[in-house]
Please model this.
Amino acid sequence: MDFSVIIVTHNSEKYILDCLNSIAKSAYELKHEIFVIDNNSRDRTKYLVKQSEHDLTLIENPENLGFAKAVNMGLKKSSGEFRLLINPDVTLKSDSLAPIIDFMRNNPKIGICGCKLLNGDGSLQYSKGSFPTLFSTFYRMVLPRKMRKYHLWGYKKAGRCDWVTGAFMLLRDRVIEDVGYLDERYFIYYEDVDYCFRTKKAGWHTYYSPEISAFHLSPHALSGKGIEIENRIRESRLRYFKKHAFFPSYRKAQN
Model:
């Protein structure tokens, strides 16, 4: 098995079929499997997945278990040499995933690889970066969103980075063996940065490859979705800094 695809859905009827269709087109020459883990969608997501023409496994959760726990359910059932975490609102633009798989096979120290993500209008999206500090996090929180595009330098160049977003994250199976699964204490957000941090501490590299690109159509879908979600995001942010940034291991991982 070349790779396994893991998609976590929650009220994703607007995007899921386009996501699945783009995967089928891009993975036609690779042996793969697809797992859709649904976090108690109340719309037509599960129906559309069941009625789709794609060969896949649907796991239905009776409640919203959060992103990390749902991803881990897919990781534990999958068997690919590589595991692709991809959001349901992501559609692959590239004709084939084969180049990124070949690249990973030819560079055995790279444990995680991300791609170039685009907004619906084709503009670049914030999808990689350096490990956050208290200062950088505060800076991004107060910086108007329309000004953040000026911080997207380096997005046309391939190379190593600290983290890539879990909206598109290609993992090597040996990384999972070395690092383990995502930290399920993160309900939403920061679980991807945390995993890249742990991967780096284990001696693996994270890489950004703009040769592979995809549209991420709803990157701010959770913004303004109520007090509960906002509290979950704050909890994840605080958990990350308690776990990493306040301790010497944070500085060590950046060296």
User: Anything to note?
Assistant: The first helix runs from residue 16 to 26. The chain is about 35% helix and 25% strand. The first strand starts at residue 3 and ends at 9.
